Fold each of these.
Amino acid sequence: MGADFRAVRNGMLAALHLIFPPRCIGCGGAVTDDFGLCAACWRETDFISGLVCDKCGVPLPGKNEGRAELCDECLTIARPWDRGRAAILYRDTGRRLVLALKHGDRLDLVPPLGAWLARAAEPILLPDMLVAPVPLHRWRLLKRRYNQAALLSGALARAAGLDHCPDLLARPRPTPSQEGRGREARFANMADAIQVARRRQGQIMGRPVLIVDDVMTSGATLAAAADACLAAGAASVSVAVLARVAKEG
Ligand SMILES: [Zn+2]
Ligand SMILES: [Zn+2]
């Protein structure tokens, strides 16, 4: 029966692919399976693997020997969360995909990017973890119509079989964009900008939380979100981002 079902399903997929051939999510070129990248886009996407910083997920030189290592930034900047992972570096195709999801209405990117994120976050997931996105202020949400972080956190939670709470965190006041600010200004801009929504306070008490965002630059936004979760009684906080901005070096 299973084999029959698979044969029928494969036949249907084959027929569907004649009508809608699978496309590369990076460039739209033809690829052989769904949700994939063509060879050229694959080469231009920096998937993070090997030894990484245990707080921010940036790749580190050396071999992964199972010890938690930290990058220079995470040794010097306060990171109120326990552990963190990132799926890709924010450059080339990775940067284009993040921008397409954020500003380009490319909701078709959510399943593949969510799968990449879930795979990267796997080593830091805990049983009973509550998954929540970095929030947008409601004015920005109205303008953009969706929170790309919430789409990613939903995909990750589904893939990992964890509870998703898209409105766990709130941004009660609009904060000016972080773009074009230095690190100090980014942290000052985000201080106290994120809170646990009052109606969600009972849910977070005593639970491990995973905060999800699309990009991590200075970590100021994630720090504000982590502080809010810990203040509301979360047992622990970790973070997962699709893309990490890394200094070229
Ligand atoms: Zn491509
Ligand atoms: Zn780090």
Amino acid sequence: MRRHGNLEYGCHAAPQRTCVGCRVRTDKSELLRLVLIEDRVVPDQRGRLPGRGASLHPSMSCLELAERRRAFPRAFRVPGPLDVSRVRAHLGGEPRNVM
Ligand SMILES: [Zn+2]
């Protein structure tokens, strides 16, 4: 009796997070983790910065949605407003292949 398929499906369920912009649940690895440093939202590219994080699809449209919905202050539980210029620069200004 082989139940490989089922077992694999069960074991490989990747952790998921909800994008604060479009609110779609996605594999954690597909999302950009953001953290709050003072009143700045910054991308946590290595996933190592401490503190409360928020997850966002690495796309401008999700960033804009998040801003419009005031999702960042809510995600970080601060009154806001927050500076997201670093995230914007990360999404718009940098080449994708930076490791
Ligand atoms: Zn999104």
